[in-house]
Specification:
InterPro entries: Ubiquitin-like_dom, Ubiquitin-like_domsf
CATH class of the domain at 2-81: Alpha Beta
Number of strands: 5
Protein name: Ubiquitin-like domain-containing protein
Structural class: alpha+beta
GO molecular function: polyubiquitin modification-dependent protein binding; proteasome binding; ubiquitin binding
Helix content: 40-55%
CATH architecture of the domain at 2-81: Roll
Organism: Arabidopsis lyrata subsp. lyrata (Lyre-leaved rock-cress)
Number of helices: 5
Radius of gyration: 31 Å
Shape: elongated
Strand order of the largest sheet: 2-1-5-3-4
Order of helices and strands: EEHEEEHHHH
CATH superfamily of the domain at 2-81: Phosphatidylinositol 3-kinase Catalytic Subunit, Chain A, domain 1
CATH topology of the domain at 2-81: Ubiquitin-like (UB roll)
């Protein structure tokens, strides 16, 4: 059967599913289409008089058991990512295997940065403090030299 899912932006997704398809299976199909995790999707089903949000505990129900049939029209909304994170934490922080989004560590993102770190000499806290003081002194000397050069330039022009 064909069902039509209208996204809040006004875009439509037409999905071909069987009557035995579960809400979760439909959400997975939609998630792949909209490139968003299943945990963020909110489906609203029914006509004007019976319209309601499909609850998460209904994900294992078949569409036909919820009154979804051929040419049914439903709406898709998205949970805010922060709300999804809070819900996952309150449930024990378990990751959802159906979530197509993966976290990537900073090491994986920037292998070049790690090589540079390996090349830098390791210094302890005292050496680091001294290095920062030396940099400040060098910076102060540079500013003084620049000011002297400008003053000399002005003096040379005035003569």
């Amino acid at each position: 059967m064909k069902v039509s899912v209208e996204i809040i932006t006004g875009t439509f997704i037409d999905a071909d599913v069987s009557e035995d398809t579960t809400v979760k299976e439909l959400k997975e199909k939609i998630a792949a289409e909209v490139k968003s995790p299943v945990t963020r999707l909110i489906l609203v089903i029914g006509d004007e008089e019976t319209r309601r949000m499909v609850m998460e505990d209904e994900d294992d129900m078949m569409l036909r058991d919820l009154g979804v049939g051929e040419d049914s029209h439903m709406y898709l909304f998205f949970k805010h990512p922060d709300l999804v994170s809070e819900e996952e934490e309150s449930k024990g922080g378990g990751e959802d295997d159906d979530d197509p989004m993966e976290e990537v560590s900073s090491e994986a993102e920037s292998p070049r940065g790690n090589e540079e770190e390996d090349e830098k000499p390791k210094i302890d806290g005292e050496e680091k403090d001294q290095a920062m003081k030396d940099e400040e002194e060098d910076s102060d000397e540079k500013v003084e030299e620049d000011e002297e050069a400008k003053q000399n330039e002005k003096d040379g022009e005035a003569k």
